[in-house]
Structures are given as structure tokens and as C-alpha cells.
Amino acid sequence: MDQAWPESTRDNLRFLCSEVDSQYGWLQAFVSAPTAAMARKLLERQGYAENLCQRIEQACPEARNHKRSHARARFQQSLVEVASGLARLSELARSCLEQLIRVDDVQLVDDVVLVKSLRRVRRGILRSEMSLENGSLSLALKLARSREKLKRDSEGRIRALTGQLKKKRAPAEDLTHLLFVAREISQMGEVLGQLGEAVISATLGQSLNFERYASLTHLVNELGDGSQTAGEMRVDTLAETRSGSRISGIASEKPSERAVEKVSDKGNDKGKPANDKQQGSKAGESGGSKQKGSKSKDRKSKDRKPAGDLPLTSPEYLAIFKDGLGRKVEEERQGVERWHDIYPGIAPRILSHHQQGDSAALLIEHLPGMTLEHLLINESSRLNRTAQQALVETLHSVWTTTRRDKPVTAGHMRQLLKRLSDVYQIHPEFRHCGASLCGREMPSLEALIEQAAGLERSLEAPFAVYIHGDFNVDNILFDPAKQSIRFIDLHRSAYQDYVQDVSVHMVSHYRLQLTDSALRARILALALSFGQQMRRFAHEQGDTTFEWRLALGLARSFATSTRFILDAGLAGRMFNRARFILEHVLGADPERPADYRIPLEELFVD
């Protein structure tokens, strides 16, 4: 394995494997011919394996880096996991012996079956060292498969012992001790499985259990022409979702260098073919999706890379690997395929799909470009304006093409009420506590929502279009080379009011956590510009209730997004905006809908 082993860890791992193998050799000998001397040999070794494990842990400081964003940290983490697993095997060997010592009738011990299981464990111990040393996926897979083999051994023995207990053919106390031995054998298999997964993770540079690796192997084999195998791939962690799905980039271990296509905007702006969403900058806004939404980075202007300062190469991902619960992955697959039917060319292609038990995985086309979130934070005003214009033109095209002249209601207030408990869980200070102003009691947010819900029922959109459904700035890609827009993360797409996407998109600008006031002002100005262009689109379509629906959509998005924001100041400003909008819209005259105008200029400024 092409990894730098921390000092002394290679020798200590070899000593650890030798120590644990010796302990299982003594246990195996005791099973075949029980003697007090043999039992004493094993019991007296308590602490040896643990001490060697601690030495390895102390030599791997980067294993404590929870992000493990680079291969060295991932390798050290795997090394520590292997050492900890071997120390656990040592504990299980002693526990097994302690149960066997208590069995009075040694004839009840099925020494043939037990010795067979212990031999499996000893082979696993040898494979754990060899596979980690050589980076051998084949050995790691054999190691991971030990879990099922030892589980079968254990279950077979448990069935036999349980049958004897029911028939009362042997002392219950002896049979109980042997049942514990069978349970320890199953746990040994579980530990060996974890050791195999640790080696797989170290080899591929990404945390993968056996099930995930099986899915990856299946999909990679379907993807290629046979020239690449999963063992020749690099797996880069890109993002994790709050619903449990994981997103990874799949690249060849031998990437070919290529010049990045440069796009000049009068010599100032150049684009990178790097997909920021696929680089992990996820911050989902709607409906319980991404974990990274609560971890928006506190970015300063000095951390931004100049627009013209581009790398000569970028990650050449062959595909994006997304796996998780089968239901969630299936929603993603169906969402992408619907876009291909309804508006071809805007969604990535599904390269392969694999279902395994309750889990599933997709290989998705890797799209060139930058997420709008990356663009907003890192690139020039000119390139951002170019991207926004491309986005507006794309939306006009999508909405015109998919328009259905059938009124729809988005139900923004229903969505807000559904998520309000989650908001209060993160920000209990937002809960109404009988506040008053100048002696006048202020209505609770719930009361405002209830009133607005009644109003919303009369504010249908005059037509439906096919919307993204989670239209955050990190779910939209802009390719500067082609001046094109693409969409990703499409599991919530549906025919609905286009205001749903408009409001989510505008608030996803506001919620970016930034300390650079000038940068933040520029981003809010872009959000305002987008809203104004959407206002013009609505006017062209004769949509007389657009302003009302946009107000309710923004109130919903401002309020619900606070559940992902731990910054009390930013969350408070967003929550207060939601309340202000509801009070503003409820104070308007519903008999004159065309006269209402939401004060966007006051909302998108700090």
C-alpha cells in the first residue's frame, strides 16, 4: 500500500498480529486437549495486545481527525481500527476460554467444529496484516467474508445447543456456557468483518463497509469496459446527506493530466471544471436532506481564490457514487429519469443502479462546472452575473416548455407548520412566550401562519411548471466553458408553482454564513436581482398573485432554514424576516391583489 506508515507502527502491528495469533493457538490447543497450564498461558497474556494497540494509536495522531479528508488520515484511521479490532479479538479469546473452563462435561464441547472456527479466526488475523501491508483488496474481501462464515458456524452450534437444552439431555449450566462460547465465535466474525472493511477503506481512501464496497464493485464493473476495476479506483468523499446518503467521486488511480479549459470574460474570469457540489459543498435547504446544511463554513475574503488563479488540473472523476437507503436512492433515480423525459439535457445521466437488501447505489455522470454556491463565494461579480443570466434564461425555457395551464397551490404555510417543531428544537428562543409591544400583545408565529394559510388557499398559481424542488445554490451547476446550467439532487422535482423554486433559491443566498461584509452585500444584491427578474417573468405571464405567493414562500424558507443555522445572529435575522413578511402580507388588501408588492429591497440587505 502506497502509504507512509507512522514510525514503529508496522513493527507494532506485526507484533500485535503475532501476539493475538499465539493466543488463539493456545485457545485452539486447549479445546483439543484442555489443561490448566494451557489455560494459564492465555489468561496471563491479558493486557499485552491492548498495550500494543495503544502504541499504534499514539503513533497515529491524524486518525483523530474526524473529517479524514485526505488519504493519510484515512489510512491512519484504518490502521487504528485494525489494531483495535485485534485487541478486541484478544478479549474474545479470553472470554471464550473463561466459559470453556466452567464446562464440567468436556464431552459436550464439539471440538471439531470449534477448532474449525478458531482456524478461520487465525487465518483472518494473518490476512489483516497482509492485506493492510500490501493494500490487497482480495485479501481484505476474504477477511470481510469471514463474518458470514463464522456467523453460520455460531448459528449452527446455537441451534444444536438450544435443542439439547429443550430436551434436557445435558446439564443446563454447561450448555449455557457453551451457548456463550458460540456467541463469542459470532462476535469474532463480526470483528474480522470490521477489519476487512477497515482495510478496504484504507485501500480506497474512503470509509466503506462491505455492503457499500459490493455495490461500488458492481457499478464500476457495469460502467467500464473491463480496463478498470474497483481496486484501481480512487474514492473521494464529497458529501453526506442528513437522510443518510453518501456522495463520493470515483476517479482512476492513474489520472491523466489535462489542461483545464479556460473561459475568459475579457481576461478576468475563468472557469474550473470542478463540481463543487461533488466536492462536498452541500447545504440543503428544504425537507430534511443534507447534514452539511448545518455546517456552512465561516468564510473570509482572504480565503477566496482569485478568479484568474486556476489550477492546471482538476479531479477527473469518472462518475459520482451515491448510496444510501434504497427508498431515498430510488427517489433520486426516478427524479433524474423524469427530467430526462420532460426536459432532456439538464440533469446528469444515471450510469448504473444497484440494489442490495435495504440499500441501493447509483453511479451518476460527473458534470463539469461549478456550483452557484462556489461561484458566489469565490468568483468575480462579472462571472456571477453571467451565470445568473444563464440561469434565468434556462428557467424561462424550462418553465415555458413544461407549462401546464392548471392552477396549483404550493402550500407554503403547511410546509412551514410541519417543520416548525424542528426550528424550535434548534432555536427554542423563537417560541412565542406572550410577548407584547407598548402594552399590545403580539400574535404568535403559529397564529400568523394560521391566518396566512387561510389567505393562501385563495392564491392559486395560474399554471404549473416542472420545478427542481430543492433549488438551493449548491444544487445548480454553471459550466463557464459552455455558458450552460445543469441541475443536480433532483429527488423533489414535481409539477408545482414556480414560486417554490424562486423563494428557496433567494433564501439560499441569504443563509450563506459569511464574515466578509462586502462579499455578503454582493451576494444579497444578486439574490435581489434574481427576484426582480422573476418579477418581470411573472408580469409577462399575467400572474397577478405572484407577489403574494412569493411573500409566503420567502416567509416559509426564511423560517425553516433557521433549523440549519447555529449562528444566533443570522438565524434571528432570518426568523424576524419570516415574521415581518407574514405581518406585511396579512396587512395588505386581498381585494386588490395586483396592488401588493413585497419589499424585496428591505429583505435582502443586512
Folded structure, characterized:
It is a single chain. By secondary structure, the chain is an alpha+beta fold. It has helices spanning 9-32, 36-43, 48-58, 71-101, 111-134, 137-167, 172-204, 210-223, 326-342, 372-378, 381-402, 412-426, 445-456, 499-510, 517-540, 546-561, 568-586, 600-603; strands spanning 233-240, 246-252, 317-325, 350-356, 359-364, 370-371, 436-437, 440-441, 465-467, 476-479, 484-487, 494-496. Helix 6 packs antiparallel against helix 7 and helix 13 (445-456) crosses helix 17 (568-586). The two termini are 52 Å apart.
The general outline is elongated
Percentage of residues in helical conformation = 40-55%
Strand content bin: 5-15%
Q: pLDDT average, as an integer?
A: 82
Rg (CA only): 30 Å
Structural class: alpha+beta
Number of strands: 12
Number of helices: 18
The poorly predicted ranges are 255-314
Distance between the termini: 52 Å
What is the N-to-C order of secondary-structure elements (H for helix, E for strand)?
Answer: HHHHHHHHEEEHEEEHHHEEHEEEEHHHHH
Please state the oligomeric state of the protein chains shown.
single chain
Strand order of the largest sheet: 1-2-3-5-4
Give a short account of the largest sheet. 5 strands, antiparallel
Please describe the topology of this protein.
Layout: H1 9-32, H2 36-43, H3 48-58, H4 71-101, H5 111-134, H6 137-167, H7 172-204, H8 210-223, E1 233-240, E2 246-252, E3 317-325, H9 326-342, E4 350-356, E5 359-364, E6 370-371, H10 372-378, H11 381-402, H12 412-426, E7 436-437, E8 440-441, H13 445-456, E9 465-467, E10 476-479, E11 484-487, E12 494-496, H14 499-510, H15 517-540, H16 546-561, H17 568-586, H18 600-603
Antiparallel strand pairs: 1-2, 2-3, 3-5, 4-5, 6-10, 7-8, 9-12, 10-11
